[in-house]
């Protein structure tokens, strides 16, 4: 079965929906999403969206903060472009109806997060992602040029490979003609032919045991593009959020927004010490990679399962008003954040690397764009500055819509693409094999490819991942398509790429920290030598 559309958008978070709304002025847009329209990473974003809004802030300060966080690995041209276009894109969101919080005097209430030298984060309480997602969904559902397919899982990108040609990695002539998409309800695979395809599938969180990402975040877009021989880069830069609620067994981990530290909350170890001062002069508001490693180190020194985030010195009314989501979630678990310290641990949160794209969001594969967390634009470098991800998504979605929209007239459908071949596949009875393999991948990645790495750990991870890869590929070839087997295949692909890129990087920089390579001097002195360092 085949369907045709001008723009095939895979994913329905801020990047995919913003693109869809802008591209619908040029042609017919089809959005496919493997779950429901609002099952996205975007919905979970608490903190907000960064942009320069008023003095004393200015573009140079936001650029400098982004470059410092990125630890020398950002593309400065991209950083300048994103920072300077950000205010216009925020105005677009406001026009669409996103209710960013205002102060009593009518001006926008700008928050501050780690690594930012100024208050520049627009937010809606501590539910910014949800507010943006709702607003965009409302608009998309009303747009007559946009069609939405929920419970439709994109499993493979269509390229010359499907016309019988041999396609080599990074070959400049690869073109994308759409995707094979599994209709999960009716259990059939549709060949969606498109003139332009957009991968906006979000994060990779479920490659790890603990993550703030929802269960849909299985790195599908990155795995698909990698299998289609597109360029994927910087996957070693996995961002761990320093403060998720310590609540063993709960998936996803509940995020305790960094904006809370921007509001005055302080990290403390079990002895009650404000330990961050020993690691960085910015204390609890240092960039995320520094705070995460410091927490990891403190937990190892003392053998503790978590550290504390203390906001008991802050105004109870202010806390409840600014952070209702955190307040309510914690109170339901017996923690009153106005009176009790919050137990927190670092967990996987964001992928800074991804599908390499140019300034218009175009990947190395012609007619294929990648937007949002799935992409690697050059903005984040080795470590993303807090709240720079939502703004990256809207800036690149705008550019990609204009760029692809203007070339639509030159593109045609590739009608020779065959229908999906079901031959030799049967229903998979052994679901337990899949669920067990998913757990194994997550254990391997969390134990050996987490916050602190070494050559030996990475080698061990690779050996184990290769076994899982072989087993899963053979299962995949024999099975009828199911969501779980596709997700397992994708997390194995993504895990493999992370390990490979981490092994190639023979230094400690930004989010990639290996005990085998000394950390280069950065803007701040190195943390003190710990009394007990279990990593040696
Ligand atoms: C947070 O609210 O701490 C998360 C914001 C982000 O990841 O940029």
Keywords summarizing the entry:
13 helices; FAD/NAD(P)-binding domain; four-stranded antiparallel sheet; seven-stranded mixed sheet; Methane Monooxygenase Hydroxylase, Chain G, domain 1; alpha/beta; binds succinic acid; 16 strands; disordered C terminus; Flavocytochrome C3, Chain A, domain 1; 3 domains; 536 residues
Instruction: Kindly state the percentage of residues in helix.
Output: 25-40%
- Distance from first to last alpha carbon: 57 Å
Average pLDDT figure? 94
Number of helices: 13
Q: What is the CATH architecture annotation of the largest domain? A: 3-Layer(bba) Sandwich
Structural class: alpha/beta
| Tally of individual domains | 3
Gross morphology is globular
The total beta strand count reads: 16
What does this structure look like?
With 536 residues, the protein is α/β, with parallel strands linked by helices. The chain has three domains: 2-237 and 352-410, FAD/NAD(P)-binding domain (3-Layer(bba) Sandwich); 246-345, Alpha-Beta Complex (Flavocytochrome C3, Chain A, domain 1), CATH 3.90.700.10; 432-504, Methane Monooxygenase Hydroxylase, Chain G, domain 1. It contains 13 helices and 16 strands. The chain has helices spanning 14-23, 59-69, 76-96, 128-142, 220-227, 259-262, 288-302, 316-322, 324-331, 389-407, 431-448, 455-478, 483-504; strands at residues 2-10, 29-32, 49-50, 121-122, 146-149, 152-158, 178-183, 188-199, 232-233, 238-245, 266-268, 307-310, 342-351, 354-356, 368-370, 375-376. The strands form four sheets. Strands 1, 2, 5, 6, 7, 8 and 15 form a seven-stranded mixed beta sheet that branches. Strands 10-13-12-11 form a four-stranded antiparallel beta sheet, covered by helices on one side. The chain has a three-stranded mixed beta sheet with strand order 9-14-16, covered by helices on one side. It is globular, with a radius of gyration of 22 Å. The chain starts with a strand and ends in a 32-residue tail after the last helix. Residues 523-536 have low confidence and may be disordered. The structure holds succinic acid. Succinic acid binds next to loops.
């Amino acid at each position: 079965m085949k369907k045709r559309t001008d723009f095939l958008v895979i994913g329905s978070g801020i990047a995919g929906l913003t693109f869809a709304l802008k591209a619908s002025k040029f042609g017919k847009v089809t959005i496919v999403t493997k779950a429901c329209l609002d099952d996205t990473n975007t919905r979970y974003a608490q903190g907000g969206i960064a942009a320069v809004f008023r003095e004393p802030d200015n573009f140079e300060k936001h650029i400098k903060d982004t470059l410092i966080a990125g630890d020398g690995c950002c593309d400065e041209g991209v950083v300048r472009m994103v920072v300077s276009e950000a205010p216009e894109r925020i105005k677009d969101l406001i026009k669409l109806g996103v209710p960013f919080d205002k102060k009593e005097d009518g001006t926008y209430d700008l928050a501050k997060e780690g690594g930012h030298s100024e208050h520049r984060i627009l937010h809606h309480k501590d539910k910014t992602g949800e507010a943006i997602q709702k607003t965009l969904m409302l608009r998309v559902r009303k747009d007559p040029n946009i069609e939405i397919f929920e419970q439709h899982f994109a499993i493979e990108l269509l390229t010359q490979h499907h016309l019988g040609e041999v396609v080599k990695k990074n070959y400049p002539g690869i073109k994308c003609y759409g995707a094979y998409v599994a209709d999960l309800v009716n259990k059939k695979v549709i060949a969606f032919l498109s003139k332009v395809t957009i991968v906006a599938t979000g994060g990779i969180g479920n490659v790890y045991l603990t993550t703030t990402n929802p269960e849909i975040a299985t790195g599908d877009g990155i795995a698909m593009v990698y299998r289609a021989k597109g360029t994927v880069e910087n996957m070693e830069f996995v961002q761990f959020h320093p403060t998720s609620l310590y609540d063993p067994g709960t998936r996803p981990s509940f995020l305790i927004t960094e904006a809370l530290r921007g509001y005055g909350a302080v990290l403390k170890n079990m002895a009650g010490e404000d330990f961050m001062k020993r690691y960085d002069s910015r204390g609890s508001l240092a960039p995320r990679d520094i705070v995460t490693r410091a927490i990891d180190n403190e937990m190892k020194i003392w053998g503790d399962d978590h550290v504390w985030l203390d906001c008991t010195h802050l105004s109870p009314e202010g806390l409840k008003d600014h952070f209702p989501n955190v307040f309510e979630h914690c109170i339901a678990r017996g923690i009153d954040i106005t009176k009790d310290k919050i137990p927190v641990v670092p967990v996987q949160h964001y992928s800074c690397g991804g599908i390499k794209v140019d300034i218009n969001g175009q990947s190395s594969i012609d007619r294929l764009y990648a937007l949002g967390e799935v992409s690697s634009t050059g903005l984040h470098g080795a470590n993303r500055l807090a709240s720079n991800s939502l703004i990256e998504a809207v800036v690149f979605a705008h550019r990609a819509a204009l760029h692809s929209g203007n070339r639509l007239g030159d593109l045609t459908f590739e009608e020779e693409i065959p229908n999906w071949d079901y031959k030799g596949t049967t229903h998979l009875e052994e679901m337990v094999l899949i669920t067990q393999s998913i757990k194994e991948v997550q254990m391997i990645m969390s134990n050996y490819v987490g916050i602190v790495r070494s050559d030996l750990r990475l080698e061990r991870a690779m050996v184990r991942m290769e076994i899982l890869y072989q087993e899963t590929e053979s299962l995949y070839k024999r099975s009828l398509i199911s969501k779980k087997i596709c997700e397992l295949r994708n997390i194995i692909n993504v895990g493999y790429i992370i390990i490979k890129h981490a092994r190639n990087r023979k230094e400690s920089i930004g989010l990639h920290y290996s005990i085998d390579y000394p950390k280069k001097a950065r803007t701040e002195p190195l943390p003190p030598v710990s009394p007990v360092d279990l990593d040696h």
